[in-house]
Amino acid sequence: MNAVLAPVEQLAAAVYVSSAVRPLTEDEILDILLIARQNNERLGVTGMLLYRDGNFLQVLEGPASVVDSLIQRIRHDPRHAGVIVVSRKNIEERQFQEWSMAFRNMSKDVTSQEGYSPFLESDFDDDETGEQSQLVFRLLRRFKQDTR
Question: Which of 21, 43, 105, 131 is a good FRET partner for 93, with 20 to 30 A between their CA atoms?
């Protein structure tokens, strides 16, 4: 008897920016991270979240249907305003596979914080990122430059 294998779902990556509807305390941000990390681990989602002065930039990677569903949830989350999906594409491999949700509060030094990501300390090379990703990585590079 031959076993029927379920097809592996296509991976997708989405990048969005949004603003908090009100200033968030550090404890509120950490609570959001705790819940996001638990949910992402359960759903097979990886990514990165940047926060600065009430603004978010987030990368989500995972099964396409899950990423799309999360984006819809975020659009309807009353804590977010002005959600703009900068990029959504199918991917072959994850860029943040080590993190259920890497995080960096760009408003302060958090290098010792759990989940800290050195991603923004790296240089971004357009030749290495591929044509479709260039806009997103240019945005990340600009975000990095403007937050120093």
Answer: 105
| CATH assignment of the domain containing 26 | 3.30.70.100
Read off the pLDDT of residues 95-138 as tens digits, 9 standing for 90 and up.
888 887 777 776 655 455 555 555 555 554 545 445 545 556 56
Count of structural domains, the chain:
1
Distance of CA 104 to the CA centre of its chain: 11
Counting every residue written for the chain, the total comes to 148
Model pTM greater than 0.85?
A: no
- Structural domain boundaries, residue 89: 11-123
Structure tokens at 13: 């990556």
**Burial (Cβ within 10 Å: 0-12, 13-18, ≥19) of residue 5:** exposed
